[in-house]
Amino acid sequence: MIRERLPFEMNPKENFFEKLNEWIGDVFYDILPEAGLELRDEQIFMAFQVERAFKEKNIMFAEAGVGTGKTIVYLLYALCYARYTGKPAIIACADETLIEQLVKDEGDIAKLSKILDLNIDVRLAKSQDQYLCLKKLENVMVASEDENIDGVYDTLPDFVHDRSGMQSFYHYGDRKEYPNLTDDQWSKINWDTFQDCFSCDQRHRCGLTLSREHYRKSTDLIICSHDFYMEHVWTYDARKREGQLPLLPESSAVVFDEGHLLEFAAQKALTYRVQEDTLENLLTRLLENDVREEFAFKIERALKQYSAFFDTLFESSVEVSGSDRKEVKLTKELQTVAQDLLDLLEEIGNDLVFESETYTIDEYALRIVDEYLDQIDYSLRLFMKDDQAIYWVEELHGELTLVIMPQAVKDILKDQVFSQKKPFLFTSATLSDNETFDYLAYSLGISDYLSFTIASPFDYDEQMKINVKKVSSEDSFQQKLQDSMKEVEKTGGRALFLFTNKEELARFKASVKDYGQYEFLFEGDQEISKLVARFQREEETILCAVHLWEGLDIPGPALSNVIIWSLPFPPNDPVFQAKRNQVADPFLDADLPYMLLRLKQGVGRLIRSHEDNGFITIYVDENIEDELLTTVKKNLPTAAQG
């Protein structure tokens, strides 16, 4: 593995940070402006502030307004520090969409490579659910006649089918390679948490496995999502115990772009999932062995009890409007059924010790079952301690999954992440709350940190027109539909519609079929980065999404209009209900801060350069309280009409 040299000359007697400081000055004052990039005072200020995080190996909250150019700043520092230490730096983005934004052909990494004549070794470490599962694909091929999924099978590399040795393998199977699949089609064939990858006979030809071998060899930058980084943290010890490499290699520094979202990613990664058919599959596999008759009867009893638990769970769960999560009522009956299941599984776990001594069951199969039983035991006990966990039910393709999430992760983050002596850089336009970073720091278990705030350089009064429009409570949808179609006429399409949930998006999609004047692109119809690229390339299109409130960066006329369908308050699902239960005033301390943060992020999609201009429309209910409306307007970057 050949490492590239530092982009500046330095002899062994010279101080790295002094030479880095000189080079950074040359880059921002001379090299970038000569290449046609704008000289930004805000960007230069940020660059010399960020140096402290790397020099002191400390945590820094870098709140930089839209247009500061923060990405170029952290890329330069991360790259140089990686080459100085000999370990790659990790850039963790909020989600997979933002990863693609960072590495697109016209993105900041490509610009720096060209302008500075650097060969940057940057590799993507995507979340596991972004990869194809060969086993699931085989099963769907048998049960389905979907031509799009058949097409996936036809594009598999030859080495997947050819078992001869001495072949050249390469990574494949990324969600991006199948852009025409809908999200629903992809969910039938992608990796999920219930796949037994370690014992899979396709493991060494699996695109997910091969991708890990690829990105682990990066010498400069590894780009992943917050979710994936946190999964790496939580699975680190378990993977080492199982003889596997951690998901990510040892790093020199970590940058959390859109860092205000890290807490939820940490909670999400630490969730425990109990699926309806997983235990049945594992225990049925044990029955195929020569086990004692008494043990076989216990397994059959446990399977019946497991089925009864999920039946009771289904009866105890209720739909939540605007959310995919079903709320669970922890009734006395559900607790009793869960406890009976725990008792049976404990007996089976004890019996596994005896069965292992008879050598009638494969040792690896025993270990997998034993670990899963431990996980179910821990999950159900956490579930029944109502004050220590957040839980809900998900339903996909007719199967239930119980999801249990710890309420607080700050202690785990403090011990397993931020106790490391290395640079951790948080960046976003919205990190502080009432001009302090204490709330974010507390939620992440951080006690000692550096920080700074720098405003956006854009002239929002001149570049942006915001209209807050009241709509009737009785017929709000039709009013919004008709008015929004008039609004997009101002810009000839070129609009981004932001919705707060999938139900809103689906209803809008069904209602605009007759509006043939514009082509609408809907999140979920294709792979998201393809939709974004089409929106940017085909300027008169309209992009409609639920998950693009943050990170979408499209300068120029392609995005000249943002329609915010409703104020983005959090859903009434179990995760946010738990947050409400932890504060004195649920609305003021939980719902309102979330909404204002998301609203500011959504509004920030419009102006991405000094040349940009356009319109923002925000729809609110006609009965909105005056105080709330005033608060909304105060948090907008320029005075709003209406």
What does the model show?
Helix content is 45%, strand content 14%. By secondary structure, the protein is α/β, with parallel strands linked by helices. It has four domains: 155 residues, 3-Layer(aba) Sandwich (Rossmann fold), CATH 3.40.50; 89 residues, no CATH class; 136 residues; 176 residues, Rossmann fold (3-Layer(aba) Sandwich). The strands form four sheets. The protein has a seven-stranded parallel sheet. A seven-stranded parallel sheet has the order 15-16-14-17-18-13-19, sandwiched between helices. Helix 2 packs parallel to helix 3 and helix 14 runs antiparallel to helix 15. The chain is globular and about 80 Å long. It starts with 15 loop residues before the first helix and ends with a strand. The mean pLDDT is 90.
What brief labels describe this structure?
single chain; 642 residues; alpha/beta; Rossmann fold; 4 domains; 7-stranded parallel sheet; 24 helices; globular; ATP-binding; ATP binding; helicase; ATP-dependent helicase; hydrolase
Name the CATH class of the largest domain: Alpha Beta
What spatial form do the alpha-carbon principal axes imply?
globular
Largest sheet: 7 strands, parallel
Q: How many domain regions?
A: 4
Residue ranges: pLDDT <50 for 5 or more in a row?
A: none
Q: From the 3D coordinates, which CATH architecture of the largest domain would you assign?
A: 3-Layer(aba) Sandwich
Number of DSSP helical runs: 24
User: What is the fourth-level CATH superfamily of the largest domain?
Assistant: P-loop containing nucleotide triphosphate hydrolases
CATH topology of the largest domain: Rossmann fold
- Strands side by side in the biggest sheet: 3-4-2-5-11-1-12
Q: N- to C-terminal separation? A: 61 Å
Please report the total strand number as a whole number. 19
